[in-house]
Amino acid sequence: MHSESWMHVRRSHSNVSRCPEYDERINSYVQTYFPRKDILYFTQKHRPIGHRTRKPEALIGNYLSHQLPILLKETEYNLQHINKIFAASWVTDRQVVFGTKCNKLIVLDLLTKQMVHIPMLKSASENQFNVDCPCGIHSIAINPSRTLLATGGESVNDLAVYRLPTFDPVCIGECGHRDWIFDLKWLDDEFVVTGSRDSKMALWLVQSDSFDSNGISVQSSQSDDSGMVVPSYEHIQPQVITECSKAEKVRALAYHSKQQDLAVLSLNAFVHIWDARTFTQKNSRKLRHARENVCMVVNEDRGIYAIGSQSYITVIDDRISKDVSTIPSQQIGAGVRSLNFISDIMTVGTGAGSIFFYDLKAGKYLELNCSHPCSLSVGKGWLSHDETYQDYFAGEQYPNAIYVHCFDDSCTKLFAAGGPLPAGLWGNYGGLWQ
To answer: Using an 8 Å Cβ cutoff, are 271 and 307 in contact?
Structure first.
């Protein structure tokens, strides 16, 4: 019996009282020819024409990414008196970890709103480099197996590694940089790369059980500034330190795991491509837009890198190292402060407190029915009215820059964070959009 005749039978008997035996035969037929009652599964998986290889889940993800902006609602969090969130990552489906300009590493439970401060790791005093104007934590990265988390140490030019999910300290990486670590990326479960304002790149080997002979193994047990006793951890040094040619201050990193290429963004508006297998530099190219290139992200499925500047987003094809397109920001001059990808949608966090959604396939920003760009406008956050504010900024409105935004694994929850854009202002913003 064909599906059309079955639908006819259903309609013709819809108002007829049936006996149990009849219902049993009908249910048996349905289970045999229509084993799932999921209409999306039936129409996409079992249709006689179309792309049989595409999974319904993939279609759902693509559809959801286009509908996401109008579905998301904000929950803003009281993050007390911390200053500017520069980096964040999801730890579980209800917890995020973030790092601040005031050099705090904090785990936030999004359900209970409880905040847990993670002790910062210290390098040995004889191995410390004095750094002017410490800038806090700019990067947080979790390795592919999600067993280790890497970020900055108490000294902003050190690498700190913690074990997940407990946040027990594993090691402190020292003697790698003489200036701020701006970004870091895991190449696999053991190797992590750091890029610094000293224009150098460092490659570290992190083995949570045993350390390479080139690393220095020193057990230490100490107290942090709050008096909390920190468990012992190792002190290691980098396997390789090398200067990034033509770079003036390494600002951001993006690792393309399929190509095993590492893209390096420097503040003098150059993008440098490195071979991650040999840790050697392959080429460098100058960007068209030179002002405030501060963030970069990779879309491995499309093979592109996106770079945010003061007023534009530059998209580069990694296969030919050429500009694919230049996308104007929706808030010219406010600065593109963070970028991310969800399917074919690129999300853009600006310095004026908004997140926009750019459709790579359509080549335009997602729009509302009234043709205005679809965006999320974040809440007020918290701003300290200290002496600096009273003397120089009183009476003015300062939206929160979105320094970081990241989706959870389901791509239905978005954590966005940041703070006031002027360097002299002390404040923060953190919110969950779901």
So the answer is: yes
